[in-house]
Amino acid sequence: MNVTVIGLVGLRKMGRKTWVDGDGMKKGEWTAEEDQNLVAYINEHGICDWRTLPRRAGLQRCGKSCRLRWLNYLRPGIKRGKFTPKEEEEIIKLHAVLGNRWAAIAKEMDNRTDNDIKNHWNSCLKKRLLRKGIDPMTHGPIINNNLTVTTTNEECGSSSTSTSSSTSSSSGSAWLLNKLATGISSKQHDLDRIKNILLVPRITSNDQDEQEEGLKRDHKIGGGEENDDFLIWDDEEIRRFMETDEIEYETTAPYVSLFYESTHILDDLL
DNA sequence: AATCATGTCAACCGCAGTGCG
DNA sequence: CCGCACTGCGGTTGACATGAT
User: Is A134 strand, coil or helix?
Assistant: First the structure.
């Protein structure tokens, strides 16, 4: 494997200032010399152990930093620069299915890094969708209501607890879809597992009308869908599984419609 | 010309998953 | 089975660029 650093000279500098941490490891912006050292070492020895690589390559960096630099910047074949409208469209489509799983999205794209895609999404695409009245998480229209979705982040995969009193019911749906996609892509896609994923959230609604609306929607469940026992849930079944899992029917009912929406995605994916 | 807001890019941090002893 | 080390990922931050006022 031979890698040459091309086009680094003349690139504008946008990194962080360089400093040295308590362990004597250099942090922040990489110099051209460091890049050359890293590339030269990998050219000669390949990638084996990121932890010991910096020492062997004569770099005063941690392995994590080297890995990141290589994957996001120095690795050959990386496509850089502005995203084309076609690429943007592709990102939006992939995000609708995969959620914030940037590495998975990057795998489907043409040599774009996950970091690049994530940056572009957060700085540009997300705002563009919002301006168009599209919820960037659900990719559906933004609907105003008072539904309050409460989740603990232990369940969502992050470290703190949050309660989002959203003006859109879609935040719950977004979380749902993300969980669903995560479960499927990590090959945990048996139906029981997916049911468990979908049962985790606790939802509260302080809007009685919304609850009633949700209940009405729930009665649509099972209305002429395919012969899949997972997709066809009647009112009695919903009540039963909520009781089993100690979830209050009245407060959770609105969420069932989100569950139902997610089954369409599930159907496509399986 | 100065200031502010927004966009862009690069890098860090913390957590989760995985493999191994 | 458990704990540790390593890797990979997503969220976040920092600094500069650019456009608008």
Answer: strand
